[in-house]
Specification:
alpha+beta
Length: about 120
Amino acid sequence: MRHGAKDRQLSRTAKHRRAMLNNMATSLLAHDRVETTVAKAKELRPMVEKLITLARRGDLHARRQVERRIKDRAVAGKLFKELGPRFASRPGGYTRIIKLRSRVGDGAELARIELLPE
């Protein structure tokens, strides 16, 4: 039974899934876009949006909560200096998922998740 199991498993253990999503969030925040599978993009979106909301707040506790997920200090600094003010007037919905194509090797649906320009 899947009581209380709301997240996708992505064929990984919980530790592996958490580490993978942390690394994908770091890449997305560093490069403004990442190409991945649709399922991974849908799992990544709420996590990144919560991080950006914390960056909009900008206090010390928010910075410490972000640095629990984002291990790269340069990316965390970019999040608070550039992305937080960039989305200050937006009430949410900072990312977009665009479905691209099927992967050649296994037929998985690929998507690009990107940060909105404003």
